[in-house]
Description:
Layout: H1 15-35, H2 42-45, E1 47-53, H3 60-71, E2 76-80, E3 84-89, H4 95-109, E4 116-123, H5 125-154, H6 161-184, H7 196-226, H8 232-264, H9 270-304
Antiparallel strand pairs: 1-3, 1-4, 2-3
Helix pairs in contact: 1-6, 3-4, 5-6, 5-7, 6-7, 6-9, 7-8, 7-9, 8-9
Amino acid sequence: MRLLHNLNFDFMAYRKQAYIFSLVITGIAIVSLVVRGLAVGIDFKGGKEMVVEVAGTVDVNRIKAALVPVLGSEVEVKAYGGSDILVRSVASEGNAQQEEATIKTINQVYPSAKAKMVGADVVGPRFAEDMRQAGIYSVVAALIMIFVYILIRFYSYGGWQFGVGAMAATFHDVTITLGLFSLLNGILPIPLQIDQTIIAAFLTIVGYSVNDTVIVFDRVREYMHDLKSESFYNIMNKAMNSTLSRTMITSMTTLFSAVVLFFFGGETIRGFAFAMSVGILFGTYSSVYVASALVLDLKLRKGSK
């Protein structure tokens, strides 16, 4: 992006306004997580998943409305592949009767669909609890490993402040994305339930957020070695300006892929694409105005003592 070459923008001059923005958004996300909580899929609470083959085009919302009296109010119905629909229900008792009732109901709504069951899986409560714990442990473990990695990589040049900055930015991105899942669930016409696919999206967001941050930190480390007469404030701004083109190109190309997935990837992957899109946007922002800005202020605070 030639427009961004030879840029000389004072990014760090606006870091306090960015702190306020981040604190407000993160605060709203935490309040929503506490008050509204998160909706979890059957992966984490147990239930049954059925794949039904249908002929022709069917309206999944109409089928869902017809299945609520049969499978309960938490039933999910999604288009799945070219000619299948995915039916998820929290009820796992009476498996054979559920399958028969589901097929019968769909055929009553769409007689020409000739619905037939092609697959069914049951997730038990104990297995669901194990899956939920594994999901939480995986995200926490990723955050700890990132902190240790950044601390080891940059400690000799910059100190512990780089590890804290990277950790804060990753926590910021994951909290805001989780908060949006909580806040917008039931408002947006897309499924925003936490399941294994969304955990994979959050782990990807963690990796993506750190990738952007490491690119900036690496350039800071180079400038700390080459520009020893410059103040740390100027070094930080120079690092931002010199890496902005690369950051924008990688972020935009990844974001375009996530947006295409959101609109054309089908109902089952829309939540994943939404999480990725939000994570990429806030990950790019936080590498500048959370990770780097925090390192700068911690350094300045240390230098003033």
